[in-house]
Amino acid sequence: MKLPRLSLALLCFWLASLTGVSAADSSRVYELRTYTATPGNLPAVLARFRNHTTKLFEKHGMVNVAYWVPADEKDGSATTLIYLLEHKSREGAAASWKAFSADPEWQTVRKASEINGKIVAKAESVFLAATDFAGAMHAGNSQGANRVFELRTYTAAEGKLAGLDARFRDHTVALFKKHGITNLGYFHPTDADKGAANTLVYFLAYPNREAAAAAWKGFRDDADWNKAREASEKNGKLTTKVVGVYLNPTDFSKVK
Fold this sequence. Notes:
With 256 residues, the protein is an alpha+beta fold. It has helices at residues 8-19, 23-26, 42-59, 90-102, 104-113, 161-178, 209-221, 223-232, and strands at 29-37, 63-70, 80-87, 120-130, 148-156, 182-189, 199-206, 239-249.
């Protein structure tokens, strides 16, 4: 029996309804940006964001997700701002940045903040797509004491990113929760030159550093974790590099 032909738009709508993801949401991208301030100018960078930049981002269609400063000196606590934006699409991101850069208000603010020289020495950007096991970035957000966050970046062994994803999807995320770790967003870079084929980037939250240490000890000692890890690595390790950076939220971050 010949089935009726569905229009492409109707088919997309039907598939989206099965996954619970709207057509608009499916094209959304995130942008992880890291700014290195010139010597002594991190407070000036933070002030510019607090008083002007975040509002101008919103004006031009960008969503301010979260802003952090590394907690430890070795990771750039005196020089570094790390933040996450959300865009409607990659094309939307390009349009928003173009409009932001051309905004007379931004140009006036930038010029005033740089009257004694540039305050940002380097700006890096990585576009990210959420995985199918990602949590919400605002998970566990409250009006209580600020939490401690961790940005973790895993480099998968060649051909092992799918296996790494599977281990997180089927085991790790639930085990983190079991041990008091709050799962936030899990992402893959979208561009080949930024690690699209072998990189997992994710964020966790803890009540404090002591709680983080205790949670990780409990996780690593967990028999279920060790069983899952051994099973996933029967044909070789899944990762070649793991980097973790503890983060403190800025006073103007929506995620705290």
